[in-house]
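Look over this record as teaching material.
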Amino acid sequence: MAFSFVGILAVVLEFFRGWLWVLVPLVILDLVLLGLFFKRTVGRRRKFSLPFKSSLGFGVFTFVMALITLPGITRSSWEMLSGAVDYLALIGASVGFGVLFAILSFPVMLHLVGIGAKVKPEQQATRQTPPPAQKDSPTEPQGTAEPQQSQG
């Protein structure tokens, strides 16, 4: 059972059981923030690249911190890691934490840096600049085409 899918889920549940009081409200808050983001951005530009990059940065930071602190959190130590399986499990768990926290931080980053300025409607009348004044070329006649009337 230790290496079966159900066994792995049991270990993961046992690990996260103490953190569910933090993760469940955080997931609910993220879903609410996503709904508010799409409600607020009606008629605005949505910028996804900067929130995505900042969430990725937060995920990389979480990966590094998990890689450093995970042996201590599990009441183990770096000296107890002996083989490739131990190191791969540590790296895999750290990658999992990084991905999890990158996903959880994305809605927050959308609200912080993802809302652009309002988009102008395309049907709005805009003021056009007049065309540049053309100078009379020497080949064109200087006079007007209409006959002048004398006053008197």
Remarks:
- The longest strand covers residues 115-118.
- The helical segments are 5-16, 20-40, 49-73, 84-113.
- The mean pLDDT is 78.
- The chain is about 60% helix and 5% strand.
